[in-house]
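Quick question, first post here. What does this chain look like in 3D?
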Amino acid sequence: MITTAKRLDTVEEYYFSSKLREVRQLMSEGKPIINMGIGSPDLSPSKEVIEAVAAAILDENGHGYQSYQGLPELRKGMADFYQNQFGVALNPNNEILPLMGSKEGIMHISLAFLNEGDHVLIPNPGYPTYTSVTNLVGAVPVYYDLKEENKWEPDFEALEKLDLSKVKIMWLGYPHMPTGARGSLALFEKLVAFAKKHNILLINDNPYSFVLNDNPMSLLQVEGAKEVALELNSLSKTFNMAGWRVGMVLGNPEIIDAVLKVKSNMDSGMFYGIQKGAIAALNCDKSWFEDQNKIYRRRRELTEKLAEKLGCEVYKEGVGLFVWAKLPAGIESSEKFIDEILYEKHIFITPGTIFGSNGEGYIRFSLCVKEEKVQEAIDRF
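> Answer (accepted):
Ran it through. Tokens below.
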């Protein structure tokens, strides 16, 4: 019997990996499942992106190993995007590192900076991968509360009362997943000051800025942020390229170089054609975002009706790709609540508990569902 590594004792299979198996099984049995659980865009990239990839496939020089740092024109495209959208100036040569999706960046950053026993500040609720990666590298998750009464923002008085002596990294993500809280530049300024005071590497996970959000922001807009902060971003949600796996990490050259040391030992570069498609995506004009958001706005309106039909109270201030809703009073378990809907009405909704204990009493709906399907879900009630 070959035993697994002890690190696997610290994690479970990712919730959606196991739950979607159950959903697929129900579908194979003929159940008409409407999947409102996962945030995988069902819309297509722009025709310019598809054309760029198609042309690149015919390039005889496009099939070999690529640079670990990506094509220079991809890095320039990312730098131009940040300049145009956020007013943030970045050197494409040493302050930007393309990634195969931002999720791998969470692992690369953790491997680059965390030793066994280091502490990591993780939002509750928040993206579950922050916890699993922290555990896999032998560090210690330390959760900080986000609550609706505080607009899903950190309580800095509570943060200062924590033992911060071993904290090396602090994860945050605004617009926030799963709640959709926007955050603000004032909040970012407080977070940068907090990180400087306690010598903490601050990382903002920022893939939702352009979905139903009239005020996109970057942590790197804060003066002096590069001294202590990184930002992760992704083309997955913004440009409907989730399966392409294109992301980026941006910030201080010395910190980026440390991440590159890890990354260069874990892959052999991103496929040339995908990089060319990403360059085309980053050059999209504002009409792209406007057209996408018209679709998502209609979907959100319908999804809010569905949530309200379930007796839920919708978090109306939310932006991004999800609708966050509070369950009716008296419901003791969000997981039991969504399972009843899955088995009785064949609609899959995400329970808030997978994002942390502060997610109990809430559920999350994805907007990656066509309008007619959302209407069908409403009609089932």
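The mean pLDDT is 93.
The chain has twelve helices and 13 strands.
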